[in-house]
Write a structure and sequence with these properties.
- It is a single chain.
- With 604 residues, the protein is an alpha/beta fold.
- An 8-stranded parallel barrel has the order 1-2-4-5-6-7-8-9, surrounded by 7 helices.
- Strand 8, helix 20 and strand 9 form a beta-alpha-beta unit.
- The longest helix is centred in the first third of the chain and has 49 residues.
- This is Glycerophosphoryl diester phosphodiesterase.
- It holds the Pfam family GDPD.
- One of its GO terms (biological process) is lipid metabolic process.
Length: 604
């Protein structure tokens, strides 16, 4: 009854018969959903940030906001709406497929309308299914959080990931076991209610009756249905990736053999990107449609009725609307291609910041790492600074030196004299056994006239003002306040720096940049985790009069992609790699560089 070969054959036949109708429905639904969901998400998220008065989101701010009553409510509503849209789209496609006849693309308008009329029932089913999955997940999430708090709660996450102490492995074992059990239960519940939506749509059952009908049909088949659904999902996900790789492998060499003339390359690339965009949209549609076909075919095979729904008259000019939707798709692809090419800047303009010095070649935050970064040609030396008990400012990312020395030493308990016997280089390599905690004054003297400083403040609780004043006064004393950058993950510290020294450039490091965030921070630059950067964010930050700095980028392909986005500064552990990449790109002609940028865009 669940024979995979015949099931796939039925799905392929139905796609051929109803493909155009499904595509038109998909386009109409996507436009309507986007018109509602995107503005609603942006508006509510901006309101949430305003309520918390958070200009950006660091790790601590994310946790504080997400775990607040308002944050939890927003998250639950956003999750529910997302699944509701998925259910609505699948319901419309199922209704469309249940109509008698084939090739009835004009019926897509009716399917859209009838799906809207079933909104209360579909919303109720979404609430029950998503709510049950969340309730099943809550106790496991609480147990994992409790285990983390007991075993690792007081340790810095960065230190834990670098050192991986025994407590980390205990937590990994406990958390992994709990996660595996939670995942198994989620899969069991998913298979149990896998056929609830077609029961509601095709047999007009209530949400509760639909869940009961699905439970009846899937009894004894949970493992097979789960395996089939997972295999199908992986196949659908892999298909666009494989297609993209094949398309690029065949088409890119043809473009690369064209004459190096911009008058020819630009139109060809415009067509190339437009065709690529249309085909990727088509692949996405096939995945969505195939999933709906899988569910409805399983429902039919396992005994669910497949009553032909009332074949309501099609709206006037349905064919015209179908052709219009498809034409709009082509126009959208051409416009998107134009946007893509217009974002390509023919010359690269990005500064190189060595993260804790050249920390891939020498121990982080040491004079050796700074010397190496200067030799490699870095524009900035990014350093983490803390204050010792005697007021001296030294370079150290961690408050405790256990990761670097194996000894439980707190920076705030030490004097400069006491640090002279502490080896912070041997952990990296025995060749660096003579490295000691570097002072801010030493780094300033080393970098003067060779590289600028990018100083991230790491104050101890209650020490914020003292550290700000100590750093600013050292920068002013050495005459480099106008060329240095002072950074922090804390919006409060950035505001204090701006108030104390408005002449010094500041950077606020953030994990995410959300709507309305820029209006609430006085920072001159935004430092963003590189995985969150895209062309829209770059444009948003730069249009506000600020620079966008991304951290920490170590892969050459990623470096190239962020250069193409137009970011202003790349912070990396591998400054030599980035400088070599920029040097190589500077030797390319405009046409060659345009091809490089196109290839990077395709691989993003």
């Amino acid at each position: 009854m669940l024979a995979t070969r015949t099931l796939l054959g039925d799905i392929a036949s139905q796609l051929r018969a109803q493909g155009r109708a499904l595509l038109v429905f998909h386009l109409f639904f996507t436009v309507l959903a986007t018109a509602v969901l995107v503005p609603l998400t942006t508006w509510t998220l901006a309101g949430l940030l305003h309520a918390f008065q958070q200009p950006a989101l660091s790790n601590a701010q994310i946790a504080e906001m997400a775990l607040s009553p308002l944050g939890l409510a927003w998250g639950l509503v956003a999750l529910g709406l997302s699944f509701l849209l998925i259910f609505l789209q699948q319901a419309g496609m199922m209704r469309l497929l249940a109509l008698s006849g084939s090739g009835r693309y004009h019926a897509s308008m009716n399917a859209l309308w009838q799906t809207g009329k079933r909104l209360p029932g579909i919303a109720g089913l979404t609430f029950l299914q998503v709510g049950a999955h969340l309730l099943l997940l809550v106790p496991f999430a609480l147990l994992i959080a409790t285990a983390y708090d007991l075993l690792l709660g007081e340790a810095e996450l960065y230190v834990v990931m670098r050192l991986k102490p025994p407590a980390f492995w205990y937590f990994a074992s406990i958390g992994g076991s709990l996660g595996a059990i939670a995942l198994w239960l989620q899969a069991w519940l998913y298979a149990r209610w896998f056929l609830a939506l077609p029961a509601l749509v095709l047999d007009r059952l209530t949400p509760v009756q639909s869940l009961a009908r699905s439970r009846e049909l899937t009894r004894g088949r949970h493992a097979r249905i789960t395996a089939l659904a997972l295999a199908f999902a992986f196949g659908v996900a892999a298909f666009p990736i494989a297609f993209s790789l094949l398309f690029n492998a065949l088409a890119m060499p043809l473009i690369e053999h064209l004459p190096d003339r911009m008058s020819l390359l630009i139109p060809v690339m415009l067509i190339y990107v437009a065709v690529y965009s249309v085909l990727i949209i088509a692949m996405t549609f096939l995945g969505v449609a195939a999933n709906s076909l899988l569910v409805i075919n399983l429902y039919h095979r396992l005994g669910g009725s497949t009553l032909a729904l009332d074949d309501l008259p099609a709206p006037a000019r349905s064919g015209w609307w179908a052709w219009t939707a498809e034409a709009v798709l082509l126009i959208f692809a051409l416009v998107q291609a134009g946007w893509v090419l217009s974002d390509f800047q023919l010359r690269d303009d990005v500064r190189v910041t060595a993260h804790r010095g050249s920390s891939i070649a020498a121990p982080e935050n040491t004079l050796a790492a700074m010397r190496r970064a200067i030799q490699e040609g870095a524009d900035y030396l990014e350093i983490d600074v803390r204050q010792l008990r005697d007021g001296n400012v030294v370079l150290s990312h961690d408050r405790n030196l256990k990761r670097l020395t194996g000894r439980d030493l707190d920076i705030t308990d030490l004097t400069l004299a006491e640090t002279r016997d502490i080896d912070i280089g041997s952990w990296f390599d025995d060749a660096f056994a003579d490295e000691r905690l570097a002072t801010l004054d030493q780094v300033i003297g080393l970098a003067h006239g060779k590289a600028r400083l990018y100083v991230e403040l790491k104050p101890a609780p209650g020490n914020e003002t003292d550290l700000i004043e100590a750093v600013v006064e050292r920068l002013r004393h050495h005459g480099i306040a106008d060329s240095a950058v002072v950074a922090s993950l804390s919006p409060t510290i950035i505001r204090d720096v701006e108030a104390y020294a408005p002449d010094i450039d500041t950077t606020l490091f953030v994990q995410f940049l959300l709507p309305g965030a820029l209006a609430a921070t006085p920072a001159d630059n935004i430092g963003l985790r590189h995985t969150q950067a895209n062309t829209d964010v770059v444009r948003l930050v730069q249009n506000s009069g600020r620079e966008l700095h991304v951290w920490t980028v170590n892969d050459p392909r990623e470096m190239s992609r962020y250069i193409d986005m137009g970011v202003d500064n790349i912070i990396t552990d591998r400054p030599a790699t980035l400088i070599d990449l920029l040097t190589e790109r500077a030797t390319l002609s405009d046409g060659e560089l345009l091809l490089v940028k196109l290839r990077n865009w395709l691989h993003h």
